[in-house]
What we know:
This protein is an alpha/beta fold. It has two domains: 239 residues, no CATH class; 263 residues, Carbon-nitrogen hydrolase (Nitrilase/N-carbamoyl-D-aminoacid amidohydrolase), CATH 3.60.110.10. It has 17 helices and eleven strands. The protein has a six-stranded mixed β-sheet with strand order 5-4-3-2-1-11, with helices on one face. It has a five-stranded mixed β-sheet with strand order 6-7-8-9-10, with helices on one face. The longest helix has 27 residues. It starts with a helix and ends in a 7-residue tail after the last helix. 48% of the residues are buried.
Amino acid sequence: MFPDAALDRFAARIRALPERRRALTWRLIRIGLALMAGAGTALAHPPFGVLIGLLGYPLLMILAERSDTVRGAFWMGWLAGFTYFFIGCWWVAEAFFVNPEQAWMAPFAASLLPAGIGLFWGTACALYRRLAPVGVVRVLLFAALFCAAEWLRGHVLTGFPWNPAGATWRAGGGMSQFASVVGVYGLSLVTLAATAALAPLVGPGAARSRLISAGLGVLALVSAGVFGAVRLAQADLQFTDTLVRLVQADVKQETKWSPEAYRSIVDRYVALTGQPGARVPDVVVWPEGALPASANEVFASTDAMAIAGALRPGQTLLMGLARGEADLTAPGGGRYYNSLFALADEGGPGLRIAAVYDKHRLVPFGEYLPLGSVMTAIGLRSLVHMPSDFTAGPTPAPIQIPGAPPVQVLICYESLYPGFTPGAAGRPDWIVNASNDAWFGATSGPRQHLNLASYRAIETGLPIARATPTGISAMIDPWGRIVDGQRLDPGVMGVIDAPLPRPTGVTPYGRLGDWPFLAALLAAGLAGLWPLILRTRLRPNRSVI
Protein backbone atom coordinates (compact mmCIF):
# COMPACT_ATOMS: atom_id res chain seq x y z
CA MET A 1 0.00 0.00 0.00
CA PHE A 2 1.13 3.57 -0.65
CA PRO A 3 1.83 4.51 3.00
CA ASP A 4 4.12 1.49 3.31
CA ALA A 5 6.05 2.33 0.14
CA ALA A 6 6.51 5.94 1.21
CA LEU A 7 7.64 4.90 4.66
CA ASP A 8 10.06 2.35 3.21
CA ARG A 9 11.66 5.00 1.01
CA PHE A 10 11.94 7.38 3.95
CA ALA A 11 13.44 4.67 6.17
CA ALA A 12 15.94 3.77 3.46
CA ARG A 13 17.20 7.35 3.42
CA ILE A 14 17.65 7.31 7.18
CA ARG A 15 19.47 3.96 7.07
CA ALA A 16 21.92 5.43 4.57
CA LEU A 17 23.15 7.93 7.18
CA PRO A 18 26.25 7.30 9.32
CA GLU A 19 25.48 5.21 12.41
CA ARG A 20 25.58 7.96 15.04
CA ARG A 21 23.64 10.40 12.94
CA ARG A 22 21.16 7.67 12.02
CA ALA A 23 20.48 6.82 15.68
CA LEU A 24 20.07 10.48 16.62
CA THR A 25 17.78 11.13 13.64
CA TRP A 26 15.50 8.21 14.51
CA ARG A 27 15.35 9.34 18.13
CA LEU A 28 14.42 12.89 17.20
CA ILE A 29 11.80 11.68 14.73
CA ARG A 30 10.20 9.44 17.35
CA ILE A 31 10.20 12.23 19.93
CA GLY A 32 8.64 14.60 17.41
CA LEU A 33 5.96 12.08 16.49
CA ALA A 34 5.13 11.45 20.16
CA LEU A 35 4.75 15.18 20.73
CA MET A 36 2.53 15.38 17.63
CA ALA A 37 0.36 12.53 18.93
CA GLY A 38 -0.18 14.27 22.26
CA ALA A 39 -0.77 17.68 20.69
CA GLY A 40 -3.19 16.32 18.11
CA THR A 41 -5.36 14.45 20.60
CA ALA A 42 -5.41 17.48 22.95
CA LEU A 43 -6.44 19.88 20.19
CA ALA A 44 -9.27 17.54 19.17
CA HIS A 45 -11.07 18.48 22.42
CA PRO A 46 -13.36 21.48 22.75
CA PRO A 47 -12.97 24.40 22.49
CA PHE A 48 -10.44 23.69 19.72
CA GLY A 49 -12.37 20.87 18.01
CA VAL A 50 -9.62 19.84 15.56
CA LEU A 51 -11.01 16.32 15.20
CA ILE A 52 -8.32 15.20 12.78
CA GLY A 53 -6.11 15.27 15.87
CA LEU A 54 -7.73 11.97 16.87
CA LEU A 55 -5.21 10.39 14.49
CA GLY A 56 -2.77 10.90 17.34
CA TYR A 57 -4.11 7.71 18.96
CA PRO A 58 -3.17 5.35 16.09
CA LEU A 59 0.13 7.22 15.78
CA LEU A 60 0.87 6.55 19.44
CA MET A 61 -0.04 2.89 19.01
CA ILE A 62 2.42 2.60 16.11
CA LEU A 63 5.15 4.31 18.14
CA ALA A 64 4.59 1.96 21.08
CA GLU A 65 4.63 -1.27 19.10
CA ARG A 66 7.65 -0.23 17.03
CA SER A 67 9.72 0.76 20.04
CA ASP A 68 12.80 -1.41 20.44
CA THR A 69 12.24 -1.80 24.18
CA VAL A 70 9.48 -1.59 26.76
CA ARG A 71 11.27 1.42 28.23
CA GLY A 72 11.23 3.12 24.84
CA ALA A 73 7.47 2.53 24.55
CA PHE A 74 6.98 4.00 28.02
CA TRP A 75 8.80 7.20 27.05
CA MET A 76 6.77 7.51 23.86
CA GLY A 77 3.56 7.28 25.89
CA TRP A 78 4.84 9.63 28.56
CA LEU A 79 5.91 12.28 26.04
CA ALA A 80 2.53 12.12 24.31
CA GLY A 81 0.72 12.24 27.66
CA PHE A 82 2.81 15.16 28.89
CA THR A 83 1.99 17.13 25.74
CA TYR A 84 -1.70 16.20 25.90
CA PHE A 85 -2.10 17.35 29.49
CA PHE A 86 0.13 20.38 29.10
CA ILE A 87 -2.10 21.69 26.30
CA GLY A 88 -5.28 20.56 28.05
CA CYS A 89 -4.39 21.82 31.53
CA TRP A 90 -1.98 24.71 31.10
CA TRP A 91 -4.61 27.03 32.52
CA VAL A 92 -3.92 25.54 35.99
CA ALA A 93 -0.94 27.90 36.17
CA GLU A 94 -3.33 30.85 35.83
CA ALA A 95 -4.64 30.20 39.35
CA PHE A 96 -1.20 30.83 40.85
CA PHE A 97 -0.97 34.29 39.28
CA VAL A 98 -4.03 35.47 41.22
CA ASN A 99 -1.86 36.06 44.30
CA PRO A 100 1.56 37.52 43.38
CA GLU A 101 3.29 35.75 46.27
CA GLN A 102 2.27 32.39 44.78
CA ALA A 103 3.22 33.18 41.18
CA TRP A 104 6.55 31.37 41.56
CA MET A 105 4.62 28.09 41.75
CA ALA A 106 2.93 28.57 38.35
CA PRO A 107 5.69 27.01 36.19
CA PHE A 108 5.82 24.01 38.52
CA ALA A 109 2.05 23.54 38.37
CA ALA A 110 2.04 23.82 34.57
CA SER A 111 4.81 21.23 34.18
CA LEU A 112 4.55 18.84 37.13
CA LEU A 113 0.83 18.14 36.69
CA PRO A 114 1.15 16.88 33.08
CA ALA A 115 4.41 15.14 33.95
CA GLY A 116 2.70 13.17 36.70
CA ILE A 117 -0.49 12.36 34.82
CA GLY A 118 1.53 11.43 31.74
CA LEU A 119 2.76 8.40 33.70
CA PHE A 120 -0.61 6.75 33.06
CA TRP A 121 -0.14 7.02 29.29
CA GLY A 122 3.45 5.84 29.57
CA THR A 123 2.43 2.79 31.59
CA ALA A 124 -0.30 1.85 29.11
CA CYS A 125 2.14 2.01 26.19
CA ALA A 126 4.79 0.05 28.11
CA LEU A 127 2.31 -2.74 28.92
CA TYR A 128 1.18 -2.85 25.31
CA ARG A 129 4.76 -3.21 24.11
CA ARG A 130 5.52 -5.81 26.79
CA LEU A 131 2.60 -8.00 25.74
CA ALA A 132 3.50 -7.52 22.06
CA PRO A 133 0.12 -8.58 20.64
CA VAL A 134 -0.22 -9.75 17.05
CA GLY A 135 -2.88 -9.45 14.35
CA VAL A 136 -5.31 -6.64 13.77
CA VAL A 137 -7.15 -7.47 17.02
CA ARG A 138 -4.19 -5.91 18.81
CA VAL A 139 -6.11 -2.68 18.30
CA LEU A 140 -8.55 -3.83 20.98
CA LEU A 141 -5.77 -4.51 23.46
CA PHE A 142 -4.29 -1.06 22.90
CA ALA A 143 -7.69 0.56 23.44
CA ALA A 144 -8.37 -1.57 26.53
CA LEU A 145 -5.01 -0.81 28.17
CA PHE A 146 -5.30 2.87 27.36
CA CYS A 147 -8.85 3.13 28.69
CA ALA A 148 -7.90 1.20 31.82
CA ALA A 149 -5.16 3.77 32.41
CA GLU A 150 -7.66 6.60 31.85
CA TRP A 151 -10.16 5.05 34.27
CA LEU A 152 -7.43 4.68 36.89
CA ARG A 153 -6.40 8.29 36.29
CA GLY A 154 -9.90 9.31 37.30
CA HIS A 155 -9.96 7.13 40.42
CA VAL A 156 -6.46 6.72 41.91
CA LEU A 157 -6.04 8.84 45.06
CA THR A 158 -8.46 11.74 44.49
CA GLY A 159 -8.46 11.16 40.72
CA PHE A 160 -8.17 13.74 37.96
CA PRO A 161 -10.64 12.84 35.18
CA TRP A 162 -10.03 15.96 33.08
CA ASN A 163 -10.57 15.47 29.33
CA PRO A 164 -10.93 11.70 28.92
CA ALA A 165 -10.86 10.63 25.28
CA GLY A 166 -14.65 10.30 25.14
CA ALA A 167 -15.08 13.98 25.99
CA THR A 168 -13.43 14.87 22.68
CA TRP A 169 -16.95 14.93 21.24
CA ARG A 170 -18.73 18.17 22.11
CA ALA A 171 -21.45 17.54 24.70
CA GLY A 172 -24.93 17.80 23.24
CA GLY A 173 -23.88 16.53 19.81
CA GLY A 174 -24.71 13.18 18.29
CA MET A 175 -21.56 11.30 19.30
CA SER A 176 -21.82 12.42 22.92
CA GLN A 177 -25.23 10.76 23.33
CA PHE A 178 -23.65 7.30 23.50
CA ALA A 179 -22.49 8.31 27.00
CA SER A 180 -26.10 7.81 28.12
CA VAL A 181 -25.49 4.08 27.62
CA VAL A 182 -21.87 3.50 28.65
CA GLY A 183 -20.76 6.78 30.22
CA VAL A 184 -17.87 8.95 29.13
CA TYR A 185 -15.39 6.12 29.78
CA GLY A 186 -17.33 3.75 27.55
CA LEU A 187 -17.37 6.44 24.88
CA SER A 188 -13.61 6.71 25.38
CA LEU A 189 -13.25 2.99 24.65
CA VAL A 190 -15.25 3.33 21.43
CA THR A 191 -13.25 6.40 20.40
CA LEU A 192 -9.88 4.78 21.08
CA ALA A 193 -10.71 1.43 19.48
CA ALA A 194 -12.22 3.08 16.41
CA THR A 195 -9.36 5.49 15.80
CA ALA A 196 -6.62 2.99 16.69
CA ALA A 197 -8.16 0.63 14.12
CA LEU A 198 -6.46 2.81 11.51
CA ALA A 199 -3.00 1.89 12.84
CA PRO A 200 -2.76 -1.48 11.02
CA LEU A 201 -2.96 0.40 7.70
CA VAL A 202 0.69 1.27 8.30
CA GLY A 203 2.77 -1.86 8.71
CA PRO A 204 2.90 -5.56 7.91
CA GLY A 205 -0.06 -7.84 7.47
CA ALA A 206 -2.57 -8.88 4.85
CA ALA A 207 -4.07 -5.88 3.07
CA ARG A 208 -7.56 -7.33 3.40
CA SER A 209 -7.44 -7.65 7.19
CA ARG A 210 -5.91 -4.19 7.53
CA LEU A 211 -8.70 -2.64 5.48
CA ILE A 212 -11.30 -4.57 7.46
CA SER A 213 -9.81 -3.20 10.69
CA ALA A 214 -10.02 0.38 9.43
CA GLY A 215 -13.52 -0.20 8.08
CA LEU A 216 -14.75 -1.58 11.40
CA GLY A 217 -13.29 1.44 13.17
CA VAL A 218 -15.15 3.82 10.89
CA LEU A 219 -18.30 1.72 11.29
CA ALA A 220 -18.07 1.96 15.08
CA LEU A 221 -17.90 5.75 14.96
CA VAL A 222 -20.71 5.97 12.42
CA SER A 223 -22.89 3.63 14.52
CA ALA A 224 -22.36 5.69 17.67
CA GLY A 225 -23.11 8.86 15.70
CA VAL A 226 -26.31 7.40 14.24
CA PHE A 227 -27.42 6.29 17.70
CA GLY A 228 -26.89 9.82 18.95
CA ALA A 229 -28.66 11.41 16.01
CA VAL A 230 -31.70 9.19 16.57
CA ARG A 231 -31.68 9.93 20.30
CA LEU A 232 -31.61 13.66 19.67
CA ALA A 233 -34.32 13.40 17.02
CA GLN A 234 -36.54 11.62 19.55
CA ALA A 235 -35.70 14.05 22.37
CA ASP A 236 -38.87 15.49 23.86
CA LEU A 237 -37.74 18.49 25.88
CA GLN A 238 -40.37 19.44 28.42
CA PHE A 239 -40.23 21.89 31.30
CA THR A 240 -41.44 21.95 34.88
CA ASP A 241 -43.17 24.92 36.49
CA THR A 242 -39.98 25.75 38.42
CA LEU A 243 -38.20 28.88 37.19
CA VAL A 244 -34.49 29.08 38.01
CA ARG A 245 -32.40 32.25 37.95
CA LEU A 246 -28.65 31.82 37.41
CA VAL A 247 -26.63 34.80 38.66
CA GLN A 248 -23.25 35.71 37.16
CA ALA A 249 -21.77 38.83 38.77
CA ASP A 250 -18.49 38.86 36.79
CA VAL A 251 -16.32 38.91 39.92
CA LYS A 252 -12.65 38.52 38.98
CA GLN A 253 -10.59 36.34 41.30
CA GLU A 254 -7.62 38.72 41.38
CA THR A 255 -9.71 41.53 42.91
CA LYS A 256 -12.28 39.50 44.82
CA TRP A 257 -10.43 39.40 48.14
CA SER A 258 -9.32 43.02 48.26
CA PRO A 259 -11.10 44.76 51.20
CA GLU A 260 -12.45 47.58 49.03
CA ALA A 261 -14.15 45.09 46.67
CA TYR A 262 -16.36 43.40 49.26
CA ARG A 263 -19.16 45.96 49.34
CA SER A 264 -19.45 46.23 45.55
CA ILE A 265 -19.55 42.42 45.22
CA VAL A 266 -22.39 42.10 47.74
CA ASP A 267 -24.31 44.94 46.10
CA ARG A 268 -23.84 43.39 42.67
CA TYR A 269 -25.22 39.99 43.73
CA VAL A 270 -28.11 41.59 45.61
CA ALA A 271 -29.04 43.76 42.61
CA LEU A 272 -28.91 40.84 40.16
CA THR A 273 -30.93 38.64 42.52
CA GLY A 274 -33.72 41.21 42.83
CA GLN A 275 -33.64 42.26 39.17
CA PRO A 276 -37.21 42.33 37.78
CA GLY A 277 -38.10 39.66 35.25
CA ALA A 278 -41.10 38.40 33.33
CA ARG A 279 -41.83 36.11 36.27
CA VAL A 280 -40.50 35.79 39.80
CA PRO A 281 -37.97 32.91 39.89
CA ASP A 282 -38.62 30.09 42.35
CA VAL A 283 -34.92 29.36 42.86
CA VAL A 284 -31.94 31.71 42.56
CA VAL A 285 -28.48 30.15 42.16
CA TRP A 286 -25.26 31.90 43.10
CA PRO A 287 -21.89 30.35 42.25
CA GLU A 288 -19.33 28.62 44.44
CA GLY A 289 -17.71 30.93 47.00
CA ALA A 290 -19.83 33.83 45.80
CA LEU A 291 -18.75 36.32 48.48
CA PRO A 292 -15.22 36.99 49.79
CA ALA A 293 -16.17 36.02 53.34
CA SER A 294 -17.21 32.94 55.26
CA ALA A 295 -20.83 32.07 55.90
CA ASN A 296 -20.21 32.71 59.60
CA GLU A 297 -19.21 36.31 58.82
CA VAL A 298 -21.98 36.94 56.28
CA PHE A 299 -24.81 35.61 58.43
CA ALA A 300 -23.61 37.62 61.44
CA SER A 301 -23.55 40.88 59.47
CA THR A 302 -26.16 43.25 58.10
CA ASP A 303 -25.44 41.79 54.65
CA ALA A 304 -27.70 38.87 55.54
CA MET A 305 -30.60 41.32 55.77
CA ALA A 306 -29.66 42.87 52.42
CA ILE A 307 -29.64 39.43 50.80
CA ALA A 308 -32.97 38.57 52.41
CA GLY A 309 -34.39 41.85 51.12
CA ALA A 310 -33.54 40.89 47.54
CA LEU A 311 -35.65 37.73 47.77
CA ARG A 312 -39.42 37.44 47.50
CA PRO A 313 -41.47 35.33 49.91
CA GLY A 314 -41.32 31.69 48.83
CA GLN A 315 -38.05 32.05 46.94
CA THR A 316 -35.04 29.86 47.68
CA LEU A 317 -31.46 31.06 47.28
CA LEU A 318 -28.67 28.56 46.64
CA MET A 319 -25.51 30.37 47.69
CA GLY A 320 -21.95 29.09 47.67
CA LEU A 321 -19.92 30.11 50.73
CA ALA A 322 -17.11 28.71 52.82
CA ARG A 323 -18.19 27.85 56.34
CA GLY A 324 -16.33 27.12 59.55
CA GLU A 325 -17.06 24.86 62.49
CA ALA A 326 -15.36 25.07 65.86
CA ASP A 327 -13.14 22.05 66.53
CA LEU A 328 -10.42 22.30 69.15
CA THR A 329 -8.69 19.20 67.72
CA ALA A 330 -8.30 20.74 64.25
CA PRO A 331 -5.48 23.09 63.16
CA GLY A 332 -6.46 26.65 63.99
CA GLY A 333 -9.27 25.44 66.25
CA GLY A 334 -11.77 24.78 63.49
CA ARG A 335 -12.74 22.94 60.34
CA TYR A 336 -13.66 24.67 57.10
CA TYR A 337 -15.97 23.44 54.35
CA ASN A 338 -16.67 24.57 50.81
CA SER A 339 -20.44 24.64 51.02
CA LEU A 340 -23.66 25.49 49.23
CA PHE A 341 -26.47 26.85 51.39
CA ALA A 342 -30.16 26.58 50.56
CA LEU A 343 -31.70 29.70 52.11
CA ALA A 344 -35.47 30.01 52.23
CA ASP A 345 -37.37 33.29 52.44
CA GLU A 346 -40.53 32.54 54.37
CA GLY A 347 -41.72 36.12 54.63
CA GLY A 348 -40.08 36.84 57.98
CA PRO A 349 -37.27 39.23 58.84
CA GLY A 350 -34.46 36.85 57.90
CA LEU A 351 -33.58 33.69 56.02
CA ARG A 352 -33.91 30.09 57.12
CA ILE A 353 -31.12 27.64 56.29
CA ALA A 354 -33.14 24.84 54.68
CA ALA A 355 -30.18 22.63 53.70
CA VAL A 356 -26.39 22.65 53.45
CA TYR A 357 -24.20 20.67 51.07
CA ASP A 358 -20.49 20.33 51.85
CA LYS A 359 -18.15 19.63 48.95
CA HIS A 360 -16.92 16.05 49.08
CA ARG A 361 -14.24 15.87 46.37
CA LEU A 362 -11.66 18.57 47.04
CA VAL A 363 -9.04 19.91 44.62
CA PRO A 364 -5.50 18.86 45.60
CA PHE A 365 -3.25 21.90 46.17
CA GLY A 366 -6.21 24.18 45.48
CA GLU A 367 -8.37 23.35 48.50
CA TYR A 368 -6.05 21.16 50.52
CA LEU A 369 -2.41 20.11 50.53
CA PRO A 370 -1.66 16.38 50.19
CA LEU A 371 1.08 15.52 52.70
CA GLY A 372 0.37 18.89 54.25
CA SER A 373 3.23 19.03 56.76
CA VAL A 374 5.79 18.13 54.09
CA MET A 375 4.40 20.59 51.54
CA THR A 376 4.19 23.40 54.07
CA ALA A 377 7.81 22.81 55.07
CA ILE A 378 8.97 23.49 51.50
CA GLY A 379 6.92 26.66 51.21
CA LEU A 380 3.74 25.40 49.52
CA ARG A 381 0.22 26.15 50.66
CA SER A 382 -3.25 25.73 49.25
CA LEU A 383 -4.99 28.55 47.41
CA VAL A 384 -7.93 28.93 49.81
CA HIS A 385 -8.36 32.15 51.80
CA MET A 386 -8.98 30.30 55.05
CA PRO A 387 -6.90 29.73 58.21
CA SER A 388 -6.52 26.08 57.20
CA ASP A 389 -7.34 23.71 54.34
CA PHE A 390 -10.89 22.68 53.55
CA THR A 391 -12.28 19.47 55.01
CA ALA A 392 -14.11 17.01 52.74
CA GLY A 393 -17.82 16.71 53.30
CA PRO A 394 -19.78 13.44 53.49
CA THR A 395 -20.61 11.26 50.49
CA PRO A 396 -22.78 13.31 48.10
CA ALA A 397 -26.52 12.80 48.30
CA PRO A 398 -29.48 14.77 46.91
CA ILE A 399 -30.95 17.50 49.09
CA GLN A 400 -34.52 18.72 49.37
CA ILE A 401 -35.05 22.47 49.02
CA PRO A 402 -38.24 24.54 49.29
CA GLY A 403 -40.03 25.35 46.06
CA ALA A 404 -38.18 22.89 43.83
CA PRO A 405 -37.73 19.16 43.21
CA PRO A 406 -34.89 17.22 44.94
CA VAL A 407 -31.49 18.33 43.65
CA GLN A 408 -27.96 16.95 43.57
CA VAL A 409 -25.34 19.62 44.21
CA LEU A 410 -21.95 19.36 42.51
CA ILE A 411 -19.48 22.04 43.50
CA CYS A 412 -16.97 22.93 40.78
CA TYR A 413 -14.47 20.07 40.39
CA GLU A 414 -17.07 17.46 41.41
CA SER A 415 -18.79 17.84 38.05
CA LEU A 416 -15.83 16.06 36.43
CA TYR A 417 -16.70 12.75 38.09
CA PRO A 418 -19.21 10.32 36.57
CA GLY A 419 -21.32 8.42 39.06
CA PHE A 420 -21.65 11.10 41.75
CA THR A 421 -25.38 11.43 41.15
CA PRO A 422 -27.70 8.51 42.01
CA GLY A 423 -28.91 6.99 38.77
CA ALA A 424 -31.93 5.03 39.95
CA ALA A 425 -32.74 4.67 43.66
CA GLY A 426 -32.84 8.09 45.29
CA ARG A 427 -32.46 9.81 41.94
CA PRO A 428 -32.92 13.61 42.08
CA ASP A 429 -34.76 15.61 39.42
CA TRP A 430 -31.92 17.98 38.58
CA ILE A 431 -28.32 18.95 39.28
CA VAL A 432 -26.89 22.27 40.42
CA ASN A 433 -23.26 22.84 39.48
CA ALA A 434 -22.02 25.85 41.45
CA SER A 435 -18.52 26.55 40.22
CA ASN A 436 -15.77 29.16 40.40
CA ASP A 437 -13.90 29.15 37.10
CA ALA A 438 -12.67 32.69 37.73
CA TRP A 439 -9.39 31.12 38.86
CA PHE A 440 -8.61 30.25 35.25
CA GLY A 441 -9.24 33.61 33.61
CA ALA A 442 -9.71 33.91 29.86
CA THR A 443 -8.27 30.49 29.03
CA SER A 444 -9.66 27.28 27.57
CA GLY A 445 -10.31 25.95 31.10
CA PRO A 446 -13.84 27.34 31.65
CA ARG A 447 -14.99 26.15 28.20
CA GLN A 448 -13.61 22.67 28.76
CA HIS A 449 -15.20 22.57 32.21
CA LEU A 450 -18.60 23.39 30.70
CA ASN A 451 -18.19 20.55 28.20
CA LEU A 452 -17.18 18.04 30.88
CA ALA A 453 -19.98 19.07 33.25
CA SER A 454 -22.53 18.70 30.43
CA TYR A 455 -21.62 15.01 30.14
CA ARG A 456 -23.13 14.47 33.60
CA ALA A 457 -26.48 15.56 32.13
CA ILE A 458 -26.18 13.04 29.28
CA GLU A 459 -25.13 10.20 31.58
CA THR A 460 -27.90 10.77 34.11
CA GLY A 461 -30.71 12.19 31.97
CA LEU A 462 -30.92 15.14 34.39
CA PRO A 463 -30.83 18.88 33.63
CA ILE A 464 -27.99 20.94 35.10
CA ALA A 465 -28.24 24.52 36.35
CA ARG A 466 -24.68 25.87 36.21
CA ALA A 467 -23.70 29.13 37.90
CA THR A 468 -20.21 30.66 37.89
CA PRO A 469 -18.92 34.12 38.88
CA THR A 470 -17.25 34.90 35.54
CA GLY A 471 -18.61 32.30 33.10
CA ILE A 472 -19.74 30.06 31.68
CA SER A 473 -23.21 29.91 33.30
CA ALA A 474 -26.04 28.06 31.56
CA MET A 475 -29.07 25.82 31.92
CA ILE A 476 -28.22 22.45 30.34
CA ASP A 477 -30.93 20.02 29.26
CA PRO A 478 -30.80 16.23 29.86
CA TRP A 479 -29.17 15.73 26.44
CA GLY A 480 -26.25 18.02 27.29
CA ARG A 481 -27.50 20.96 25.22
CA ILE A 482 -27.69 24.55 26.41
CA VAL A 483 -31.37 25.48 26.71
CA ASP A 484 -32.37 28.07 24.08
CA GLY A 485 -28.69 28.86 23.55
CA GLN A 486 -28.75 31.03 26.69
CA ARG A 487 -25.31 31.23 28.28
CA LEU A 488 -23.31 33.88 30.07
CA ASP A 489 -19.81 33.81 28.63
CA PRO A 490 -16.62 34.93 30.39
CA GLY A 491 -16.60 38.63 31.21
CA VAL A 492 -20.40 39.01 31.08
CA MET A 493 -22.48 40.16 34.05
CA GLY A 494 -26.14 39.22 34.10
CA VAL A 495 -28.78 36.62 34.88
CA ILE A 496 -30.47 33.78 33.05
CA ASP A 497 -34.09 33.01 33.93
CA ALA A 498 -34.75 29.52 32.62
CA PRO A 499 -37.54 27.04 33.27
CA LEU A 500 -36.19 23.83 34.75
CA PRO A 501 -36.30 21.00 32.17
CA ARG A 502 -37.90 17.72 33.14
CA PRO A 503 -35.54 14.76 33.50
CA THR A 504 -35.67 11.88 31.06
CA GLY A 505 -36.29 8.35 32.21
CA VAL A 506 -33.42 6.58 33.94
CA THR A 507 -30.62 6.11 31.40
CA PRO A 508 -28.81 2.77 30.97
CA TYR A 509 -25.70 4.40 32.42
CA GLY A 510 -27.71 5.79 35.32
CA ARG A 511 -28.99 2.29 36.09
CA LEU A 512 -25.78 0.31 35.58
CA GLY A 513 -22.98 2.84 36.01
CA ASP A 514 -19.53 1.84 34.78
CA TRP A 515 -20.22 -1.92 34.83
CA PRO A 516 -20.98 -2.21 31.08
CA PHE A 517 -17.82 -0.24 30.34
CA LEU A 518 -15.72 -2.45 32.62
CA ALA A 519 -17.19 -5.58 31.01
CA ALA A 520 -16.44 -4.20 27.53
CA LEU A 521 -12.94 -3.28 28.70
CA LEU A 522 -12.31 -6.85 29.84
CA ALA A 523 -13.77 -8.30 26.64
CA ALA A 524 -11.65 -6.01 24.46
CA GLY A 525 -8.53 -6.89 26.40
CA LEU A 526 -9.15 -10.63 26.11
CA ALA A 527 -9.96 -10.34 22.41
CA GLY A 528 -6.73 -8.44 21.84
CA LEU A 529 -4.76 -11.09 23.73
CA TRP A 530 -6.51 -14.07 22.14
CA PRO A 531 -3.93 -14.69 19.38
CA LEU A 532 -1.21 -14.73 22.04
CA ILE A 533 -3.22 -17.08 24.23
CA LEU A 534 -3.76 -19.45 21.30
CA ARG A 535 -0.11 -19.32 20.33
CA THR A 536 0.90 -20.18 23.89
CA ARG A 537 -1.55 -23.09 24.09
CA LEU A 538 -0.52 -24.52 20.72
CA ARG A 539 3.21 -24.25 21.38
CA PRO A 540 4.72 -27.79 21.67
CA ASN A 541 5.45 -28.99 25.17
CA ARG A 542 9.17 -29.45 25.53
CA SER A 543 10.38 -31.29 28.58
CA VAL A 544 13.92 -32.18 29.50
CA ILE A 545 14.48 -35.62 30.98
